[in-house]
Amino acid sequence: MIFNLIKRRRSVFPAQYNDRPIEDKEIETVLEAANWAPSHKRTEPWRFKVVTGNAKIRLGEFMAAVYEKHTAKPKNIKTKKIMDKARQSAVIIAICMQRDPEERLPEWEEIAATAMAVQNMWLGCVELGIGCYWSSPSIIKYMDGFFDLQAGEQCLGFLYMGYFDEPIEAGQRRPFRDKVSWIRD
């Protein structure tokens, strides 16, 4: 049931991933789930760049170099962590948003539609037993130096993906009633 799937969704980090590869067929299944997200005026603003194999290492090296260049006091441990995440992941998907050229709707709606596409991907990963998490480092604004981004396209972050062996802790949430107001009659 979908409600159980939603409650099982968790962030699973690259350090938790094993070496099992993710087949293209499974990646395509996850991307197909993304494609069914809602979007106002059917702009379908989500764009994805699937990074696998040696390209993951190049992306990690690029991101580490950008971090060191654009950070006042870069830390070696952070540089290493950036490269490790790329190496430890089976797949990295750059999450991008293509702005409607006619700007028929506010940008936030296209960002929200892209986020809903990512939620669909995340739930697809849960169903397939693939761990993932969305990271939006400050250096994403420099990703046009690595990816061929179109005019009006921006990178919003990365979905790191990989299989994992260890059980994931059950989630914790405060009751929804603490966050809801009812307005009636």
Kindly describe this structure.
This protein has 185 residues and is an alpha+beta fold. It has a single domain (12-166), classed as NADH Oxidase (3-Layer(aba) Sandwich). It has helices at 2-8, 24-34, 53-70, 76-88, 107-128; strands spanning 46-51, 91-98, 130-135, 153-163. The protein has a four-stranded antiparallel sheet, with helices on both faces. Helix 2 (24-34) packs across helix 5 (107-128). The two termini are 33 Å apart. The mean pLDDT is 96.
Topology:
Layout: H1 2-8, H2 24-34, E1 46-51, H3 53-70, H4 76-88, E2 91-98, H5 107-128, E3 130-135, E4 153-163
Antiparallel strand pairs: 1-2, 2-4, 3-4
Brief digest:
With 185 residues, the chain is of the alpha+beta class.
Q: Helix/strand/pairing class, anyone?
A: alpha+beta
> Please, how many helices?
5
What is the CATH-assigned architecture?
3-Layer(aba) Sandwich
- N to C succession of SSEs: HHEHHEHEE
How many distinct beta strands? 4
**What's the name of the CATH homologous superfamily?**
NADH Oxidase
Q: What amount of the residues lies in strands?
A: 15-25%
Q: How can the largest sheet be summarized?
A: 4 strands, antiparallel
Tell me the CATH topology.
Answer: NADH Oxidase
Count of separate structural domains: 1
Report the CATH C-level class.
Alpha Beta
Mean pLDDT: 96
Radius of gyration: 18 Å
Order of strands, main sheet, comes to 1-2-4-3
Low-confidence stretches: none
The percent of residues in helical segments reads 25-40%
Overall 3D form? globular
Alpha-carbon distance between the two ends: 33 Å
